[in-house]
Design brief:
Blueprint: E1 4-7, E2 14-15, H1 47-74, E3 83-90, E4 98-106, E5 109-117, H2 121-140, E6 149-153, E7 159-163, E8 170-174, E9 183-187, E10 194-195, H3 198-214, E11 223-224, E12 234-239, E13 242-247, E14 253-254, H4 266-283, E15 286-288, E16 295-297, H5 303-320, H6 327-336, H7 340-354, H8 360-383
Parallel strand pairs: 1-3
Antiparallel strand pairs: 1-2, 3-4, 4-5, 5-7, 6-7, 8-9, 9-10, 11-14, 12-13, 15-16
Helix pairs in contact: 3-5, 7-8
Length: 384
């Protein structure tokens, strides 16, 4: 039988029933700007209940969930006798989930998994949709961009077991004392956080835009939504002058109400794609300084990488949808036929639909939107 140990973030912080935190409730990291639900929340989940629930989830059925996940990850059979120590690390108090990183010794190898635990009202509502979305996208877009889902349980504490991307870390914009331009820092656990170079930061925005666009279905307007850099949805790993990017959460994959509709002809397909593109371009620029501070607006430097990523993704998704190779150029010409004032009107409608006007995020968008749309319009006109 594997031995189970519980920790906060590292092995320097072990946790058991004798620790003062064991009987205390997990922090409630509710989504900024959201209202409390009308229904009464269930009792708060304690640290002890959290770790105990994950332990039971893993051990259920003779450790079948861990055995199945390890077999798929190693691409070879694993039996219970191959399992060694299981370490559970509480990684984050997220707006939707309290994710735990599992480290499992299997045949003298250390394998990593994630258990996303829905301890909040919003998380419980989202988790089953996320499981379906991840399974669908991993089937339709098998490029390794998302965690595979190995198992799911819908008990009092719903949770699912998936891949943990070793070496990938959350990132956020940060203010620099010697510059007006924010930099991108990687939360890699180092005492001094790594700052991405301009090339690496550009590659990050290009890859994130490419992933989201590749997952857009132009026939139905289905897309990954909601997502937000401030929530740490994307993670990054530096690789020389470039980076690799993964999307660790997909809260839904559908046609978002109010900002998209399922198109019924060629023009409707292009109109829906213009809406997707404008919304993507706005949301790509939003973050929070250091993940939790004021809302941040990314530099103009990242517009071109974002555009490049969008068109790279559009080429991929068009091919997968059976569209002609010329479809990205068709979209570019269609976009360029719009007047700048019309594009700004569309952008304001999208902002008004998606972002609450009372929030700091919306106020920041309103300040930058005209310049942002003008920049997009000029860049696409030149390249077209």
């Amino acid at each position: 039988m594997p031995t189970v140990s519980c920790f906060l973030s590292t092995t320097d912080h072990p946790l058991d029933e004798n620790h003062p935190l064991w009987h205390r409730p997990l922090p409630d990291n509710r989504l900024p700007g959201t209202k409390k639900p009308d229904r009464v929340e269930t009792d708060a989940i304690t640290y002890g209940q959290y770790f105990s629930a994950i332990s039971r989830f893993c051990a259920a059925g003779g450790w079948d969930r861990i055995i199945t996940a390890a077999s798929r990850q190693l691409e070879q059979p694993v039996v219970r006798q191959d399992l060694g120590r299981l370490s559970i690390f509480l990684e984050k108090h997220g707006a939707f989930y309290h994710p735990a990183r599992l480290q499992v010794k299997v045949k003298d190898q250390a394998l990593s998994f994630v258990v996303n635990v829905a301890a909040s009202f919003h998380g419980r509502n989202a988790l089953s949709r996320e499981v379906k979305a991840l399974e669908r996208l991993n089937d339709q877009r098998p490029f390794g961009w998302f965690p595979k889902v190995y198992s799911f349980a819908s008990d009092r504490l719903p949770m699912f077991l998936g891949d943990w991307f070793d070496g990938f870390h959350e990132f956020h914009l940060t203010q620099q004392p010697d510059s007006d331009e924010p930099a991108l820092v990687v939360w890699d656990g180092a005492a001094t956080r790594s700052v991405l170079s301009e090339k690496q930061a550009a590659a990050l925005y290009r890859n994130a835009a490419m992933i989201l666009t590749t997952c857009y279905d132009p026939l139905t307007s289905c897309q990954i939504f909601p997502w937000h850099h401030a929530a740490g949805d994307f993670v990054v790993r530096a690789e020389g002058d470039g980076v690799s990017v993964r999307l660790i959460t997909v809260r839904d994959y559908a046609t978002p109400s109010g900002i998209a509709a399922e198109p019924d002809d060629e023009r409707a397909i292009l109109d829906a794609l213009v809406n997707f593109f404008i919304h993507l371009s706005i949301r790509m620029r939003l973050d929070r300084f250091d993940g939790v501070k004021d809302v941040a607006w990314a530099s103009d430097h990242y517009i071109v990488p974002m555009l490049n990523g969008f068109f790279q993704g559009l080429d991929l998704t068009a091919r997968m949808s059976g569209f002609p190779e010329t479809f990205p150029d068709t979209f570019r010409h269609y976009f360029n036929h719009h007047k700048g004032t019309d594009l700004l009107t569309m952008a304001r409608r999208i902002a008004g639909t998606v972002f609450d006007q009372r929030t700091e995020e919306r106020r920041l968008i309103d300040r930058h939107l005209a310049r942002h749309i003008n920049e997009l319009h000029q860049l696409l006109a030149v390249s077209g």
